[in-house]
Design a protein that fits this description.
The chain has 8 helices and 6 strands. It has 187 residues and is of the alpha/beta class. Helix 3 links the parallel strand 2 and strand 3.
């Protein structure tokens, strides 16, 4: 089975379009796994209501000032969700980016795929998060997720980072970390 891995926060830019984005994936036959902060408010609760059975929601806990980075990075750890098989395909998506066509059949070949890897200058050492996809087993191997929960993976990766302007300094951390781990893996 193929899943879209999405995250959202209470911010209107992400909570408001979430049901439309989940629906767009569902129209392609792809269910969404959505990561949200543990202390979600009314906006995400409303979004969850309208996502219905097209998605499954999972939570993480973090300091409020680290919420955006935890949320963005959580998409790299979709393979921590219980019940997935090693052959299931996970594709990172954005909560504000509806999919309008199915370019995702190529992900079923078992390889690591990064659509748009050429969109960022090589010296940035980043991959765009949409759309990175591969089988669960490769996510686990590349990102060291064997026997880890979502919370453990996030705390180990993001939890120790410190900054006065956390969101500003680490806005693209997920893209940098994805590039680092995928390149280091040699795939």
């Amino acid at each position: 089975m193929t899943y879209a891995i999405i995250s959202a926060t209470e911010n209107d830019l992400y909570s408001f379009p979430l049901p439309i984005v989940v629906w767009s994936w569902y129209k392609l036959g792809i269910k969404s796994i959505v990561f949200v902060p543990k202390n979600s408010g009314v906006k995400l609760e409303l979004a969850k209501k309208y996502c219905g059975e097209m998605s499954d929601f999972y939570t993480f806990d973090c300091e409020e000032r680290k919420e955006a980075t935890y949320s963005q990075t959580s998409r790299l750890f979709g393979a921590t969700v219980d019940g997935l098989s090693d052959s299931d395909i996970l594709i990172c998506g954005d909560s504000d980016l509806a999919v309008l066509g199915n370019e995702f059949e190529q992900f079923k070949d078992g390889e690591v795929r990064v659509i748009g890897a050429d969109l960022l200058a090589p010296e940035m050492n980043q991959f765009p998060m949409c759309f990175i996809g591969m089988p669960v087993k490769k996510w686990k191997d590349i990102f060291g997720l064997h026997d880890k929960t979502l919370q453990q993976a996030l705390d180990e990766t993001v939890g120790e980072l410190q900054s006065i302007n956390f969101r500003g300094d680490f806005w693209s951390f997920d893209q940098w970390y994805a590039h680092k781990k995928i390149v280091e893996s040699g795939v």
